[in-house]
Design brief:
8-stranded parallel beta barrel
Length: 327
């Protein structure tokens, strides 16, 4: 397969970039990992700039439990593109160890690694890792602030060679959130934003608040995508799985409903997705094609088909980001 032309740098979450979130398929863990490797190679040859890996523990299917580890593994099995642990749950880990893991992942990948931090909303994640569920937001902000400081260019000598050398690469760090307080926190610590698939107006309000607070990092807009007519039962199952998690119910509201952006016309779908990123105030796009009930082969077909329109999305998004910056 011919590698498509790309108009952005290889840096994770670069302006105009288009990445895809990948998930494990059901079955034996090692078999699922082999499938994940194939899907990553396919995505990066089909037209995506990078791959993201989300984290959950317990009974939520499809998620890896250590995205930093799996990202490092995937980067050893692909010859182009980047991989990001996004979102990885910062609340579950001590800040010094998380900073070291991120630093070494970046070093081993030659700078092809990034991360987005989530606070976590599912109580099972905290039970599985024996971390208290209460006060997780306060802990999340403490941990991410410490990690950003340790990996920052102006940090002092903390004795870890990996961190010292990784600082030269300036690892892209983002905050995955839908909360106003957390977008202001992201701006304070010099991180970008990795927004869930919110309605455009909600995303724009968060981005405006982030910018007003001094935020200048990448802003990733996420969407579930299907080229063709997406299976309605897959969308319903996706929402049922999310709403059934043992969580802080304050997180769950009308903006949490996941809607799959689908279409049969490649140009129309690419334009619609680019319009969503622009109207939301985003700088790059992250798509997911995984739906419950869809097997590995059909998922691979969607990865390839959506990858074919990545150049159209990338060029329009990059152009609009530049225009907004000039304006």
């Amino acid at each position: 397969m011919e590698i498509p032309r790309t108009v952005v740098a290889g840096r994770p979450f670069a302006d105009g970039s288009v990445s895809i979130g990948l998930y494990l398929t059901p079955g034996e863990p090692l078999d699922a990992m082999r499938v994940l490797e194939r899907h990553a190679r396919l995505a990066l040859s089909a037209g995506f700039d990078g791959v993201t890996l989300p984290e959950h523990h317990g009974t939520q299917p499809g998620y890896v439990t250590n995205p930093v580890l799996v990202a490092t593994h995937l980067l050893a099995h692909v010859d182009r593109g980047w991989v990001a642990a996004a979102p990885t749950l910062a609340s579950l880990r001590p800040a010094p160890l998380l900073a070291e893991d991120l630093a070494w992942a970046s070093l081993l990948s030659g700078g092809r690694f990034g991360a987005a931090f989530g606070a976590g909303y599912d109580a099972q994640d905290f039970a599985a890792t024996e971390v208290p569920f209460e006060h997780r937001m306060r802990r999340f902000r403490q941990v991410t602030a410490q990690v950003a400081r340790r990996l920052g260019q102006d940090a002092g000598d903390d004795g870890d060679d990996g961190i010292r050398f990784a600082r030269r690469m300036s690892i892209p760090l983002l905050i995955a959130t839908k909360g106003q307080r957390n977008v202001e926190h992201a701006a304070r610590i010099g991180a970008g934003l990795f927004l869930p698939p919110l309605p455009v107006d909600d995303s724009r309000a968060l981005v405006d608040r982030y910018t007003a607070a001094g935020g200048a990092g990448p802003v990733t807009i996420t969407r579930w995508v299907w080229l063709g007519t997406h299976p309605d039962e897959g969308e319903r199952a996706l929402n049922q799985g999310a709403s059934g998690a043992q969580r802080d119910q304050l997180w769950l509201d009308s903006s949490s409903v996941i809607r799959v952006e689908s279409g049969t016309d490649q140009a129309e779908l690419a334009g619609r997705l680019s319009d969503i990123v622009d109207a939301s105030g985003g700088t790059n796009l992250n798509v997911r094609v995984r739906l419950p009930g869809i097997d590995a082969a059909e998922t691979a077909e969607q990865i390839e088909r959506v990858g074919e329109i990545a150049d159209r999305m990338r060029e329009r998004t990059a152009y609009r980001v530049v225009e907004r910056t000039r304006g």
